[in-house]
Amino acid sequence: MDEERNNVNEESRGLTFKDILFIIRKHWIAIICFIVACTAAGFIWSKVEPPVYSSTGSMLVSYESGSTTLTQDYTFSNYISSTYVSFIKENVVMDKVSEKLKAEGKEFTTGQLKNNTSVSNNALIIKVSFKSNDPEVAKEVAQTIMDTAQEVANTEEGGKAVYHLLHDNLKVLSDAKNGVKVSHTLRNTAIGLAAGVVLALVYIVIRELSDNTFKSSEEIERALNIPVLAGIPDYHFDDEKKGSK
Hints:
A hairpin with a 2-residue loop joins β2 and β3. This protein starts with a helix and ends with a helix. The chain contains ten helices and seven strands. The strands form two sheets. Strands 1, 2, 3, 6 and 7 form a five-stranded antiparallel sheet that branches. A two-stranded antiparallel ribbon has the order 4-5. It is about 60% helix and about 15% strand. It is an alpha+beta fold.
């Protein structure tokens, strides 16, 4: 009974830290090859992929109630600043941007515009950026987005503002600049490194699962259910030579 319990405990103990170190040491060359190859591939890809340019402009949120203090106006402007960040990427704005660009001979769907547009805010300043493979196109689209966002926010019907809280509170602060090349070297290299680690782990798992050799006398006893009477010990010739000097 005790022997069966010991066998169960031995089978369920799983990999120890020592076992993991042994496996890593056994496959260290393959691990390094996977990591180096994938990291190098990520770095090389960042150099050969089509260049991407980003153009950025800024807008200012300025709310003036006329009946409250300057501090209250600033507080409310800061409060609705986050609303404008979401508003700029809404379909009501992007659909109109797409129509304007189409009239100028540039085909951009609403989805493409959203995917390549980033909007962020810092207090009352809103930054609008657009990425494209052409620096001039990036600049033109970024500027169109800002102008259109201001127009939509100021929409009126029947002499009344459609978006009351947003009306006349968003203004272009600085026009979009020429597109600047975006470097993806760090990102692609990091992705390659992560991919190398994952592939190395997959390789180790496959190799270990397909390896049906015995690693210790305990494994032989568990598999054959017979005791090991004797074994051939590891003999280190290098150690013997060193000791004889």
